[in-house]
Amino acid sequence: MLALTRIAAFMRSGGVLRLHDLIYDFQPSQAGAVFTRWFGNAATDPTQGYTSEDFAEHIRTEHSTFRWLFEPMLSAAGFEIATADFDGSVYGTYTCIKT
């Protein structure tokens, strides 16, 4: 939340924030199934992309959040969500307008 507030403070009204990150678009009870599917599509060779071990490490250490928690934070920081798109229930891409 602090980072979003700081970003908003630097922007003028009408400015555009484009954000792409791991943001979960599922309920916590669905995590096992979603992560199993996500890990199943991971690279097996680390030179070719992120492996299932890389994804598991991210989940353990980076503390990504759920969409239903993240979107109210955007609003509270002073952004209006113009678009929100998700890939595989784990990658969120937002276009937001500073109000």
Description:
α1 (2-10) packs parallel to α4. The longest helix is centred in the middle third of the chain and has 11 residues, at 52-62. By secondary structure, this protein is an alpha+beta fold. It is built from four helices and four strands, in the order αβααβαββ. The protein has a four-stranded mixed sheet with strand order 2-1-4-3, covered by helices on one side. Helices cover 41% and strands 28% of the residues.
Outline the secondary-structure elements.
Elements: H1 2-10, E1 16-24, H2 31-40, H3 52-62, E2 65-66, H4 67-77, E3 79-87, E4 91-98
Parallel strand pairs: 1-2
Antiparallel strand pairs: 1-4, 3-4
Helix pairs in contact: 1-4
Quick structural summary:
The protein is α+β, with helices and mostly antiparallel strands. 41% of the residues lie in helices and 28% in strands. Strands 2-1-4-3 form a 4-stranded mixed beta sheet, with helices on one face.
Keywords:
99 residues, Rossmann fold, 41% helix
Instruction: Give the number of DSSP strands.
Output: 4
Overall CATH class:
Alpha Beta
List the helices and strands in order: HEHHEHEE
CATH fold annotation: Rossmann fold
Structural class: alpha+beta
Alpha carbon gap, first and last residue: 16 Å
Overall residue-averaged pLDDT value: 95
Using the 3D structure, state the CATH architecture: 3-Layer(aba) Sandwich
- Strand order in the sheet with the most strands: 2-1-4-3
Rg on CA atoms, Å: 15 Å
Low-confidence parts, pLDDT < 50 over ≥5 residues?
none
**What is the CATH superfamily?**
Vaccinia Virus protein VP39
Largest sheet: 4 strands, mixed
User: What number of domains?
Assistant: 1
The number of helices is: 4
State the share of residues found in helices, binned by percent. 40-55%
**What is the approximate shape?**
elongated
Strand content: 25-35%
